[in-house]
Design a protein that fits this description.
Blueprint lengths: L6 E6 L3 H9 L5 E9 L17 E4 L3 H4 L7 E4 L10 H10 L2 E3 L2 H20 L2 H9 L6 H7 L7 E5 L3 H10 L5 E5 L11 E2 L1 H4 L8 E4 L13 H5 L5 E5 L8 H9 L3 E6 L19 E3 L10 H18 L9
Parallel strand pairs: 1-2, 1-3, 3-4, 4-5, 6-7, 6-9, 7-8, 9-10, 10-11, 11-12
């Protein structure tokens, strides 16, 4: 085994073409497949003895087991988020053990950003309401629909969570000449749009036409959009969530929609998931839901493999890793 040959553990299950490509491009490495695999990129593996033999983990390893291992030098997640690993004890372990943690946000920034843009444009051009009309009374409310349509130009947008997805979203919205502000835990000062800290963010809500939530789920963000925050939003604003359902008080959101404090909401994530058929969110006024599909696209699995292989080449060459969070 040469110096750049590694034992790589995975619990990810890929389609035949993506799996064949992965193995072909990593023949010099030894693969250790978990006894429990999943084709869903958010499913965490239970503790697996094979992980103890590996130096690299690709997938969703058990967080508690990781902290018992010294040999793991790099963990590459098959997800953009890293909620299960965003804990102080795990952060301390990664740093003290000299272990890198990277995500696949480079795979999901484009589809997630396009997903949000599609809903912004749909609201602006009143598409959800016209679709509802087509499936219900099939009337022809041309005057009302035209009067309620609006242009995105000049509208104010606040993006909560300015990581790779937020960054790409800002790039896609730039041609519309909207007024963009991002919110992140630790502003760096080199971002492409004005950035404020989370502590300063609520001051922006009263003037924002669109509030976009890309926040991950952790102790500091769970329930962040509670009733007090939602009620500070501008009357008639639109709310979007492609972050995590647990960051929003769904009861408060439902009330704000039903009493028309908010003009509408688009949710790609909820709590729980799947959302039960009788959940009140399904019936909230002007609430539109997709089943956690913002990051999905036909080449998703192959994209995950290509992203990992690109990072594996960088790791072998001693270059900085892509999408490193720790």
């Amino acid at each position: 085994m040469n110096a750049n040959s590694y034992k790589i553990w995975t619990n990810a299950s890929f389609p035949e073409d993506a799996n064949a490509f992965l193995r072909e491009k990593s023949q010099c490495h030894t693969w250790l497949t978990s006894a429990t695999t999943s084709s869903l990129n958010l499913v965490t593996s239970p503790a697996d003895p094979k992980l103890a033999e590996a130096s690299i983990a690709f997938g969703q390893p058990d967080a508690s087991q990781l902290m018992q291992l010294k040999n793991i030098r790099w963990v590459h997640l098959t997800s953009a988020g890293y909620t299960a690993y965003d804990r102080d004890d795990l952060r301390d372990w990664f740093r003290s053990n000299g272990t890198a943690l990277t995500t696949s946000s480079g795979v999901y920034d484009e589809p997630c950003a396009q997903h949000v843009v599609s809903m912004l444009m749909a609201f602006a051009r009143q598409l959800p309401y016209s679709l509802r009309t087509q499936h219900e009374d099939r009337s022809w409310p041309a005057a009302t629909r035209r009067a309620n349509s609006f242009l995105l130009s000049g509208q104010r947008v606040v993006i909560f969570g300015f990581g790779e997805i937020g960054k790409r979203l800002a790039e896609l919205l730039s041609p519309f000449q909207m007024q963009l502000v991002g919110v992140r835990r630790n502003p760096r000062g080199d971002e492409s749009i004005p950035i404020v800290s989370i502590d300063q963010s609520c001051d922006l809500l009263g003037n924002a036409d669109h509030i976009i939530n890309v926040l991950p789920a952790n102790e500091s963000t769970n329930g962040f959009f509670h009733e007090g925050v939602i009620r500070r939003m501008k009357p008639g604003a639109f709310f979007y969530n492609i972050g995590r359902g647990s960051t929003v008080s769904q009861e408060a959101l439902i009330q704000a929609l039903n009493d028309q404090h908010l003009a509408g909401a688009y949710l790609d994530v909820t709590s729980p998931e799947p959302l039960p058929p009788d959940h009140p969110l399904w019936f909230a006024k002007n609430c539109f839901i997709t089943p956690h599909t913002a990051g999905g696209f036909r080449e998703e699995m192959l994209g995950l493999v290509e992203h990992f292989l690109s990072n594996l080449e960088r790791y072998s060459s001693g270059l900085p890793l892509l999408n490193r969070v720790i």
